[in-house]
Specification:
The complex is a heterodimer of chains A (109) and B (127). By secondary structure, chain A is mainly β. Chain A is built from no helices and 9 strands. In chain A, strands 1, 3, 4, 7, 8 and 9 form a 6-stranded mixed sheet that branches. Chain A has a 3-stranded antiparallel sheet with strand order 2-6-5, with no helix packed on it. In chain A, strand 3 and strand 4 form a beta hairpin. The radius of gyration of chain A is 13 Å and the shape is globular. In chain B, strands 2, 4, 5, 6, 9, 10 and 11 form a 7-stranded mixed sheet that branches. Chain B has a 4-stranded antiparallel sheet with strand order 1-3-8-7, with no helix packed on it. Chain B starts with a strand and ends with a strand. Chain B has 127 residues and is an all-beta fold. Chain B is built from no helices and 11 strands. Classes of the chains: A mainly beta (109), B mainly beta (127). At the A-B interface, strand 3, strand 7 and strand 8 of A face strand 5 and strand 10 of B.
Chain lengths: 109, 127
């Protein structure tokens, strides 16, 4: 089955740029979606199809995807961005197609 | 308001059964693929199962195949997850989630990004 690998944690100072990676075999050929989850809350979709943002998500959130790595970039990080972030793909060639990365804890210093 | 509300969680003994429900409102339920996603305490998200708009296709993660059954009732705007032969490792918060769809002038497709989530229902498997 398809595996997505994320770093367990990323730390960044307020106002700086955070980059969270998601590795997978030829992930550039797939559509990657990203979710933000704060403690005790359900996940929220922040980027879909590699780089598109749902309505209501700040422009500070952006994404890219190429080769074996997809990246979620959060510019001008705020304290309220502190959360767990998960990447996700749909592996339509598999009979269990839903795949999440292990998650990355973003800490705002 | 677009909303998903799960119910049916609780404490169950190993080997027992439980049926989760998810009530949808504020959108045309029958137009969307739907999924169940779970999260064990302190762990990450795990996709569990999904079902096509008309119920004709269903997919499961390997660890629940043969034990869990996903179903839906479009007339009642409801999604279900029947869980049998429950194990301790099934302990988790279970979320129902809607898969986004995008439509052109001629057709619609789903990219299986989960754009709407319920608040979750806790399932605890313990003796």
């Amino acid at each position: 089955s398809y595996v997505l690998t994320q770093p367990p944690s990323v730390s960044v100072a307020p106002g700086q740029t955070a980059r969270i990676t998601c590795g997978g075999n030829n992930i550039g050929s797939k559509s990657v979606h990203w979710y933000q989850q704060k403690p005790g809350q359900a996940p929220v979709l922040v980027v879909y199809d590699d780089s598109d943002r749902p309505s209501g998500i700040p422009e500070r959130f952006s994404g890219s995807n190429s080769g074996n790595t997809a990246t979620l970039t959060i510019s001008r990080v705020e304290a309220g961005d502190e959360a767990d972030y998960y990447c996700q793909v749909w592996d339509s060639s598999s009979d269990h197609p839903g795949v999440f990365g292990g998650g990355t804890k973003l800490t705002v210093l | 308001e677009v909303q998903l509300v799960e119910s049916g969680g609780g404490l169950v003994q190993p080997g027992g059964s439980l049926r989760l429900s998810c009530a949808a409102s504020g959108f045309t339920f029958s137009s969307y693929w739907m999924s169940w996603v779970r999260q064990a305490p302190g762990k990450g998200l795990e996709w569990v199962a999904n079902i096509k708009q008309d119920g004709s296709e269903k997919y499961y993660v390997d660890s629940v195949k043969g034990r869990f059954t996903i179903s839906r009732d479009n007339a009642k705007n409801s999604l279900y997850l029947q869980m049998n032969s429950l194990r301790a490792e099934d302990t988790a918060v279970y979320y129902c989630a809607r898969a986004a769809i995008y439509c052109s002038s001629t057709s619609c497709y789903s990219n299986h990004a989960f754009d709407i989530w319920g608040q979750g229902t806790m399932v605890t498997v313990s003796s």
